[in-house]
Design a protein that fits this description.
Elements (H helix, E strand, L loop, with lengths): L15 H20 L3 E2 L5 E3 H9 L3 H6 L2 E3 L5 E4 L4 H10 L8 E10 L11 E10 L4 H17 L5 E6 L3 H16 L7 H9 L13 H5 L10 H17 L4 E2 L13 E6 L8 E7 L3 H4 L7 E7 H5 L13 E4 L5 H13 L4 E3 L6 H10 L4 E5 L4 E6 L6 E4 H20 L1
Parallel strand pairs: 1-5, 7-8, 12-13, 12-14
Antiparallel strand pairs: 2-4, 3-4, 5-6, 6-11, 7-9, 9-10, 10-11, 14-15, 15-16
Helix pairs in contact: 5-9, 12-14
């Protein structure tokens, strides 16, 4: 027997039973995107490595250690996308989406990072991203946060919303200097990652999950002490909007982003502060990114949802459209069964016809397990037996009358469900 080829560690397939709830959640998310006026953009899976080095930052773990990077046949360095924002901005600049325009965009798909697989972390994972361009006020931030809160609420996900502000670039620079002074005073107690980040990207030290670092980080200066008047007004405007919208939030003084293009608002939803992988969705304002990637100065804000983490927390999944009709048939009547199925599909009914060689008993077992609302057994050239789910007695009707009778049964069930 040939040797089985194993899958890549940290890269899992979604099997059919898993795909159904994913598809239902994704369909609900698409509907909410339309309700809020966001349009889909489909992004490439591969980009030039330079894009992520400039956008995400060479001094980040993503670029230094986690990206899947390779040389193509022309010797160009390409990378599988580790996140979506950089590609969205690049595509928007090339497509002329940002010049004197506002844009509301969403995307979804697989992202790739080479990191140690564990619960909540995968080497291939999925994100749903929502981004708005050309709007600089706090109102669009509040609307995005309201959208995120609605998504979690409708799916029954319990999470706390944390918000903070990085202020203007000048505020951020003052805070960076104060933070570096504090960390250098405790350099001998910093772990290896923190020492590495200290000179190149000190704000990332605040993201440390090392319990031994907690005392040092808790004593670190707060960025709010370095806000300008403009920054305080912007943050007050945001929190005022959130209160008016009835969105509960907590101010998290240590919540930051380590990339220089972030300004003003940052936020994230966490499921449980005791979990290492507690963040479900995170975002913020990144007004400097379009300029960093070669475009004109453009206000930008957005957030991304980790779909694997979201799906693991959903308690009110959207209803999955079940199978309408399951048709059991002997081989001699498969042609007629297929014609019946096509006529029902013309009416929008989901139909499965048993086409594998199997006994009537085996087909009956599979039909009951399918969860179909109506079971049909092809008897002979004259007709079929139709049995509504849960019924003990079926109706025998001609092939000619079968479509109308099945539609009548399904219609009656739909009316009962609506009531």
């Amino acid at each position: 027997m040939n040797r089985q080829v194993a899958g890549v560690r940290g890269v899992a397939a979604l099997l059919p039973a898993e795909c159904a709830p994913w598809a239902a959640v994704e369909e609900r998310l698409r509907a909410l995107m339309e309700v809020y006026g966001f349009r889909e953009i489909r992004l490439p899976i591969i980009e030039r490595t330079e894009l992520y080095a400039r956008a995400v930052g060479e001094a980040t773990d993503i670029v230094e250690k986690e990206m899947y990077t390779f040389l193509d046949r022309n010797g160009d360095s390409l990378s599988l996308r580790p996140e979506g924002t950089a590609g969205c901005v690049r595509a928007g600049i090339e497509g002329g989406l940002f010049h004197n325009q506002t844009q509301r965009l969403w995307y979804q798909g697989a992202m790739f990072r080479h990191e140690r697989p564990q619960k909540g972390r995968y080497r291939q994972f999925h994100q749903w991203g929502v981004e708005a361009y050309g709007m600089s006020g706090a109102a669009i931030e509040a609307e995005l946060i309201a959208l995120g809160a609605r998504i979690l609420r409708e799916l029954g996900v319990n999470a706390r919303l944390l918000v903070n502000s990085l202020g203007t670039p000048a505020c951020r620079e003052r805070y960076r200097d104060a933070l570096v002074d504090h960390l250098k005073a405790h350099r001998d107690r910093l772990d290896e990652d923190s020492v590495r980040r200290l000179d190149r990207n000190p704000l990332r030290v605040l993201d440390s999950k090392n319990p031994a670092m907690r005392e040092i980080l808790d004593a670190a200066p707060a960025i709010a002490d370095h806000w300008s008047t403009e920054s305080r007004a912007h943050f007050a405007d945001l929190t005022g909007h959130l209160r008016a919208l009835g969105v509960a939030f907590e101010v998290a003084p240590r919540l930051v982003r380590g990339l220089d293009y972030y300004t003003h608002t940052v936020f994230e939803w966490v499921a449980d502060e005791t979990l290492a992988q507690a963040t479900i969705a995170a975002g913020g304002r990144y007004d400097g990114l379009v300029t960093e990637l070669g475009g004109a100065a453009t206000a930008a804000v957005g957030f991304a949802i980790g779909m694997e983490r979201l799906m693991g927390l959903v308690t009110r999944p959207p209803q999955v459209l079940g199978l309408g009709v399951y048709v059991m048939t002997p081989a001699a009547l498969q042609g007629r069964a297929l014609a019946l199925a096509e006529a029902l599909r013309d009416r929008g009914v989901r139909v499965e016809v048993h086409l594998a060689a199997a006994s009537a008993k085996s087909q009956g077992k599979r039909a009951r397990e399918s969860g179909a609302r109506c079971l049909v057994e092809a008897v002979d050239e004259e007709g079929v037996v139709i049995l509504a789910a849960g019924a003990t007695q079926g109706d025998t009707v001609s092939w000619t009358d079968a479509v109308a009778r099945i539609s009548e049964i399904l219609g009656a069930e739909a009316k009962i469900d609506d009531e």
